[in-house]
Specification:
The complex is a heterodimer of chains A (about 90) and B (about 240).
Chain A (H helix, E strand, L loop, with lengths): L3 H16 L20 H15 L15 H16 L1
Chain B lengths: L1 H33 L4 H23 L3 E4 L9 E4 L6 H4 L8 E5 L9 H7 L3 E2 L5 H13 L3 E4 L15 H9 L3 E7 L1 H4 L12 E5 L13 H22 L1
Parallel strand pairs in B: 1-7, 2-5, 2-6, 3-4, 3-5
Antiparallel strand pairs in B: 6-7
Helix pairs in contact in B: 1-2, 6-8
Classes of the chains: A mainly alpha (about 90), B alpha/beta (about 240).
Chain lengths: ~90, ~240
């Protein structure tokens, strides 16, 4: 099963590649909207990018508005990956 | 010499440009006010004429102003450009687009006197408009024959900032071509936060239109934004380093 460290690395790599973030911006406490400047369309794009990266479905049955920080995002993907693995 | 030219540009040419903006607005205001129908179209035409005037003053203040045009698409289009100076807004007129709806930040709508033009022309406040409303307003503008103008970097602070994909999503939804425009030299002539007008070479280049059908898939608009940015920034870097 994918480890949390791998989730963090792959998520950050995807965000750097698709949204041009720098390493120093991608701290776990960074707020997606206020610190990283992701608007509602960016958030949708980010979800699609991460779905393709991890092969999971993030959009169905989950309230993505609860994801405020990068750490929330890592937690969410980790939880999904664990469920998917079971 | 450069210092003297900057002083001349700032005081004489800058003063003349402000005089042009004020006097043309005062002269045009009653005529625009009297327009009962198509007032928004008349205001957009007025903004175009004002902008052509500013480009004339920019040419006087520059070390050369070159415009590389393309044939415009036969339909309305979405124009996207990089953004590093307050002058960028006016430069688009050099390509002959005379019926543009600008999508801008909210603060522009709060500038005294300016907000009459912004509202009169039917420009759209990106911060106060939901994505659904934006789509509906742009669709209406396109039905009136307007082109839609975005600065996808959203701010003048970082000339290399990411292109947000909203403009490209809109083009995808309304099936409109996207015309990328590179603006170089204005960031030297009048950088963000400065008031002095330095002499600089200005090159404006329109690229061939991009079509949403060439960028399929759920992330098509994101890929189109990345491709447009690459074209513009490659040209920007080449001109800036030459």
């Amino acid at each position: 099963m994918i480890t949390r460290e791998e989730i963090i690395k792959q998520t950050n790599d995807a965000l750097k590649k698709e949204f041009e973030f720098k390493d120093e911006q991608l701290v776990p406490t960074a707020q997606l909207r206020d610190d990283l400047g992701l608007d509602s369309l960016d958030a949708v794009d980010m979800v699609v990018v991460l779905e393709q990266k991890f092969g999971v479905t993030l959009r169905q049955g989950y309230d993505l508005r609860t994801i405020v920080t990068l750490n929330d995002l890592y937690d969410f993907i980790e939880k999904l990956a664990r469920t998917h693995h079971k | 010499m450069e210092c003297l030219r900057t002083c001349f540009n700032t005081i004489v040419i800058g003063g003349a440009a402000i005089f042009w903006l004020v006097v043309s607005a005062v002269v045009a205001a009653p005529f625009l006010w009297l327009q009962s129908t198509h007032r928004d179209r008349a205001v957009r035409k007025f903004v175009y004429i004002q902008s052509r005037g500013i480009v004339f003053f920019m040419r006087l203040a520059s070390k050369g102003l070159h415009v590389e045009k393309q044939d415009r698409p036969k339909t309305s289009c979405v124009i996207v450009a990089n953004h590093a100076s307050a002058l960028d807004l006016y430069t688009i007129s050099a390509f002959g687009f005379d019926n543009i709806v600008y999508i801008t930040k909210g603060w522009v709508f709060k500038v005294p006197f300016f907000h009459y033009v912004m509202n009169g022309a039917g420009y759209i406040d990106a911060e106060q408009t939901s994505p659904e409303e934006m789509l509906a307003l742009c669709k209406r503008a396109v039905e009136k024959g307007c082109d839609i103008m975005f600065f996808p970097q959203g701010s003048r602070k970082d000339p290399k900032a990411r292109f947000k994909s909203g403009a490209f999503y809109l083009a995808e939804q309304l099936n409109l071509p996207v015309v990328p425009v590179a603006i170089t030299g204005t960031q030297k002539m009048l950088p963000a936060g400065k008031l002095s007008i330095k002499p600089a070479k200005i090159v404006l280049k329109a690229f061939p239109a991009m079509y949403p059908k060439d960028y399929p898939g759920e992330l098509g608009h994101l890929r189109m934004a990345q491709a447009a940015k690459k074209q513009i920034m490659d040209f920007f870097d080449k001109e800036t380093n030459s």
